[in-house]
Design brief:
Its EC number is 2.7.13.3. One of its GO terms (molecular function) is ATP binding. It is a multi-pass membrane protein. By secondary structure, this protein is of the alpha+beta class. It folds into 3 domains: about 90 residues, Beta-Lactamase, CATH 3.30.450; about 70 residues, Signal transduction histidine kinase, dimerisation/phosphotransfer (DHp) domain (Helix Hairpins), CATH 1.10.287; about 150 residues, 2-Layer Sandwich (Heat Shock Protein 90). It has 9 helices and 12 strands. Strands 2-1-5-4-3 form a 5-stranded antiparallel β-sheet, sandwiched between helices. Strands 7-9-10-12-11 form a 5-stranded mixed β-sheet. It is elongated and about 85 Å long. The structure holds adenosine-5'-diphosphate and magnesium ion. The site of adenosine-5'-diphosphate (ADP) has 21 residues, from helix 7 and helix 9.
Amino acid sequence: MESNTLKDQHLDYEILISFLDYLKEGVIVVDENKNILFVNRFAQRFLNTPDYEGKHFKEVINDNYLYSIISHDYDKDTKLEVNIDSSKYLVNVYHIKGKKIIHLQDITPFEIYKQAKKDFVSNVSHELKTPISVLKSAMETIEDEIKDSNILKFVDMAKKRINQMDSLINDLLILARLESQEDLVKKKKYLLRKQVEDIFEDLQHLTKDKNIKLKNNIPKNFEVYADEQKLSIALKNLIENAIKYNVQNGIVEVNAKTDGKYDTISVIDTGIGIPPESIPLVFERFYRVDKSRSRNIGGTGLGLSIVKHITEAHKGKVWVESQVGKGSRFYIKIPKT
Ligand SMILES: Nc1ncnc2c1ncn2[C@@H]1O[C@H](COP(=O)(O)OP(=O)(O)O)[C@@H](O)[C@H]1O
Ligand SMILES: [Mg+2]
């Protein structure tokens, strides 16, 4: 019976080579002795001669990075990012049947896009901060001057919206900063209990409406190894949620334990809980379980993605266990060193 698979027809060498020449990606193949077997059209820009076949790579490779990548003997397939000329390349090194295959993808456009997006968010947020603070003080002046309670109702409404915008911009700026490489985690050892105490004090005003009780169960001498400012932002977000999404006379507890290698901090509430189908989504940007309910509670939908960012920057993990109507437990687990 006649077969039509490529394998049975011995896929034409010419077809393969023309295909590789069409690619807007580089392919270089060297043998065990690092003689060049093949260079596709795209990758020929890295050579000093078109006449490369059978030559040792040292004679023909122009670029220092590629030179060292080919020189180096990796013990497994490898992925690297390198700058060649003014472009950024993702380089994959594969080992197939004793041959080494170097595959180069130009990721410059993607890098430019990522940078542009970050710059945009951070510039727009900075630009918005000034008009918002002007609006805030204008509202305060009106509030002081006007006695008409009908008008004051509108002022109050405007103030709430302005504060919402302010939180949104602050959260966007925190995220933009976390994403930029300049903002590294600066870890040190410190006592956790005091930090939680300070956050409780900061958030005390939110507990009044529903008479929420805050419990700091962190042992007196419990030390964490973390970026103090960043972990504070993360815990503040979790504790604020635990208060906001709680019920009348609810309780919020913060605990910590260690296994010697990792510390686990938990923020536990007796609130409304999160339905199982929403649990995988709550750490996504702008995700809010119940849009209409959340709108009344106020928030940006960015808090938990900030928490996730900060935990991961600490090489840690964050997760949640929750039951609707019973409450939620958020955990942050970070290494001790
Ligand atoms: N402790 C909690 N209990 C119940 N739901 C929560 C809790 N924490 C977060 N959520 C849900 O996850 C969503 C995302 O949280 P977050 O990113 O902090 O945004 P925000 O609080 O601004 O809405 C919230 O809108 C809420 O629906
Ligand atoms: Mg929140």
